[in-house]
Amino acid sequence: MNTPNWVKNAVFYQIFPDRFARSARTRHPRGIQFKPWGTPPEEQGYQGGDLHGIVDKLDYLQDLGVTALYLNPVFSSASNHRYHAFDYMQVDPLLGGDAALRDLLDSAHARGMYVVLDGVLNHASRGFWPFHHVLENGPNSPYVDWFFINDWPLRPYSSDDKNPVNYEAWWGMPALPKLNTNNPGVRDYLFEVTRYWLDFGIDGWRLDVPSEIDDDDFWREYRRVVKAANPRAYIVGEIWTEAQRWLQGDMFDAVMNYLFTRNTLSFFGASTLRKFEHNELPMQPLDAPAFAQQINQMHALYDWEINQVQLNLLDSHDTPRALWLMSDDKSALRLSLFFQMTMPGAPCIYYGDEIGLTSAGDPHCRAAFPWEQESVWDHDLLTFYKQAIALRHQNPVLRTGSFEIIYAEGDVIAFRRILGERRALVVFNTGKAVAHLTLHLPEAQQAGCFQAWPQGGGSYRIENQHITLDVPARAATVLFN
After folding, report:
1. What domains can be seen in the chain, in order of their start residue?
2. Which residues are registered as beta bridge partners of 322?
3. 84: which of 125, 347, 392, 451 fits an S-S bond (Cβ 3.0–4.6 Å)?
4. Phi and psi, residue 89, nearest 5°
């Protein structure tokens, strides 16, 4: 089983394009109107972020340590999140069109950065050209079998129980007709879209709600299409639960690792975790032994090649921000981030987390990045993000080394990573008092065998293959041989 090596070494940054950055270089038709930048996201609408705006901020992202971008959908759509695509073969003109994506890809690739786009294959929008054809022609449309029609006439703006939507739609929303992927023409079209943008230069696809295309043969063929176009392309599916079905090496490379999300926030934010109802992200406080058990179970689900490219995230456009979920406890966010950066898998940062953005879930978590309001940024937190990301980049053992939990009691967990002759010991103390522990490590044969990362604090000594550590409250220490 092979997965893309570049992903094992990547640090991702997720961007919601309409809300990240607006560029003066993007030419719009005269007379169009955007909402003012920073308008509360619950007002919906468009605030005018675009792909040239991302290019303009690549210096910022590179300085942060980002090496890969994951963008929410960019194709022409009548929604600010663009999960309602009406033209899969055109980048939305409001984002700058195809030329802006070309600019982003060329500029990112010149910096050694990768770009992954969001693919929505389960459903389109009621403005999607074949569905519009059906709306205009009814059962006489040649495209009628591209969708699941229950009766006529269609009710594309249905909104009440007396006149429910009469075609299959995502979550029953009439704006999102489900595509009939059993139809060979639909499959051909979706595979053509997939191949076209890979040939254009993107580096992979994040797949929206792929479990709703309940067809393994479809996904196996999808993988063949992707890997034929670019063997190094990344395929990551939005699966919120255990995902063995899709991670056998014949469908996806990885999934968005919401198991990681749930367990990480439940441990590091145990004392401040909000009561939050989400069917697919159930969280409850964990102590170190329970956390260790969950992490080991998570890794046991998949081949090691898969674990190394799982998209490890703390939050996303579909969840409250991690800081909000932990009641704005920044010590919990720092510990979670440090854990993310010392774990196997590809860490993914949701835009703005690094400056302390906090909010409840959709739509609040989709606020505009406050570029012109640096006074509201948490610069200390931003510095911590840079340091933790840099530590990962500087030490391959933290990216692709083996992983073993060697201690988990109370508020303290320790694990080691080994890559060749290089070893790292990582210890977290989530408690409110200094933690004292002694670990037996065969490789710890003499004083000076390890170095403490300065930002970790604390102290240690080595004697007779034992290492004794004092780890400050709410802190982490990593030591290298």
Report:
1. 5-122+181-394 (3.20.20.80), 129-172 (3.90.400.10), 401-480 (2.60.40.1180)
2. none
3. 125
4. -100, 15
3-state secondary structure of 239: coil
The sheet with strand 435-440 has its strands ordered as 435-440, 466-471, 459-463
Is 87 a known active-site residue? Answer: no
pLDDT tens for each residue of 206-258: 999 999 999 999 999 999 999 999 999 999 999 999 999 999 999 999 999 99
**Mean pLDDT throughout 380-398?**
96
Catalytic residue among 56, 92, 238, 411: 238
In this prediction the pTM is 0.96
Residue 162 main-chain phi, psi, to 5 deg: -70, -30
CA distances from 384 to 293, 333, 347, 465 (A): 28, 10, 15, 32
Q: Can 238 be counted among the known catalytic residues? A: yes
Buried b (16+ CB within 10 A) or exposed e, 22-35: bbeebeeeeeeeeb
- Axis-axis angle for helices 379-394, 330-341 (nearest 10): 20
Q: What backbone torsions phi and psi does residue 117 show, to the nearest 5 degrees?
A: -105, 160
pLDDT of 192 over the 90 cut:
yes
Q: Cα 387 to chain center, whole Å?
A: 20
C-beta atoms surrounding 94 within 10 Å: 22
Phi/psi region, residue 101 (left: phi>0; alpha: psi -120 to 50; beta: rest), is alpha
How many of the other CB atoms lie within 10 Å of CB of 356? 18
What is the per-residue DSSP string for 427-476?
EEE-SSS-EEEEEE-TT--STTS-EE-GGG--EEEEETTEEEEEE-TTEE
